[in-house]
């Protein structure tokens, strides 16, 4: 069940007060992850989707780092018990739409539901407002045409917009390794580089040992 953070006793209270009034309170960190083990696994096990697996890793890591579940409510901070995933999907007419993956720790269940969500989203065409009222999400973007080193996101909610935005880019070969860029953009009133680093550490461990992370 969602609950409110006790800001009065929060050890980051000064940082919260300091950054929440910034005109642009967001910061972005981009790094590369070695996707070779996951690619090898999905090529050997045709029933595992590379696309769905790395979304599972991302939302699993986000749920494990509490700060990724913080959301602004005016002067208060709501802590969601669990967050889910939204992602971009390219359509046949070169428009894009959103699909939503509800998180569960069982990857087989997660993948089956995610595959159904992808089919439904593609069949429905452009639907950009399906969960516009919800913020118990992590927003993902997939940009498989570019191996980026930085990225910025469109935002409409100003200082109150607090959903983390994560982007996955095109992986590149480097000495026999597949390196995949991953960008994380978050609200500085709610977290610091330390917390993004913890997300990255978990994500790296899942990419390095995908069988264990997927529960196989």
Description:
It is a single chain. The protein contains 6 helices and 10 strands. It is α+β, with helices and mostly antiparallel strands and 216 residues long. It has a single domain (3-214), classed as Chloramphenicol Acetyltransferase (2-Layer Sandwich), CATH 3.30.559. Strands 2, 5, 6, 7, 8, 9 and 10 form a 7-stranded mixed β-sheet that branches. Strands 1-4-3 form a 3-stranded antiparallel β-sheet, with no helix packed on it. A hairpin with a 2-residue loop joins β9 and β10. α3 packs across α5 (193-208). The chain is globular. It starts with a strand and ends with a helix.
Order of helices and strands: EHEHHEEEEHEEEEHH
Number of E-state strands: 10
Unreliable residue runs: none
Q: Which fold name fills CATH's third level, the topology?
A: Chloramphenicol Acetyltransferase
Report the biggest beta sheet as strand number plus sense, adding barrel if it closes: 7 strands, mixed
Mean pLDDT score: 95
According to CATH, the homologous superfamily is Chloramphenicol acetyltransferase-like domain
| Overall CATH architecture | 2-Layer Sandwich
* Rg over C-alpha atoms, rounded to the nearest angstrom: 17 Å
Counting structural domains, the number is 1
Helicity, as a percent range: 25-40%
Overall shape: globular
CATH class assignment:
Alpha Beta
Architecture blueprint of SSEs:
Blueprint: E1 3-4, H1 13-19, E2 26-34, H2 36-44, H3 50-64, E3 70-73, E4 76-79, E5 84-90, E6 96-101, H4 107-124, E7 137-143, E8 165-169, E9 172-174, E10 177-187, H5 193-208, H6 210-214
Parallel strand pairs: 5-7, 7-8
Antiparallel strand pairs: 1-4, 2-10, 3-4, 5-6, 8-10, 9-10
Helix pairs in contact: 3-5
């Amino acid at each position: 069940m969602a609950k409110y953070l006790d800001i009065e006793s929060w050890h980051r209270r000064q940082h919260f007060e300091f950054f929440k009034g910034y005109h642009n309170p967001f910061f972005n960190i981009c790094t590369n992850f070695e996707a070779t083990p996951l690619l090898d696994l999905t090529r050997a096990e045709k029933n595992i989707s590379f696309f769905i697996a790395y979304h599972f890793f991302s939302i699993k890591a986000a749920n494990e780092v509490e700060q990724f579940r913080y959301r602004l409510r005016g002067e208060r901070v709501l802590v969601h018990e669990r967050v889910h995933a939204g992602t971009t999907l390219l359509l046949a007419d070169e428009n894009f739409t959103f699909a939503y993956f509800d998180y569960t720790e069982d990857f087989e269940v997660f993948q089956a539901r995610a595959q159904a969500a992808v089919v439904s989203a593609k069949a429905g065409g452009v639907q950009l407002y399906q969960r516009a009222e919800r913020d118990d999400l992590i927003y993902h973007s997939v940009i498989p045409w570019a191996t980026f080193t930085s990225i910025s996101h469109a935002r409409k909610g100003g200082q109150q917009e607090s959903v983390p935005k994560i982007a996955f880019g095109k992986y590149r070969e480097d000495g026999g390794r597949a390196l995949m860029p991953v960008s994380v953009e978050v609200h500085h009133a709610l977290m610091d580089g330390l917390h993004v680093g913890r997300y990255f550490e978990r994500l790296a461990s899942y990419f390095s040992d995908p069988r264990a992370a997927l529960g196989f």
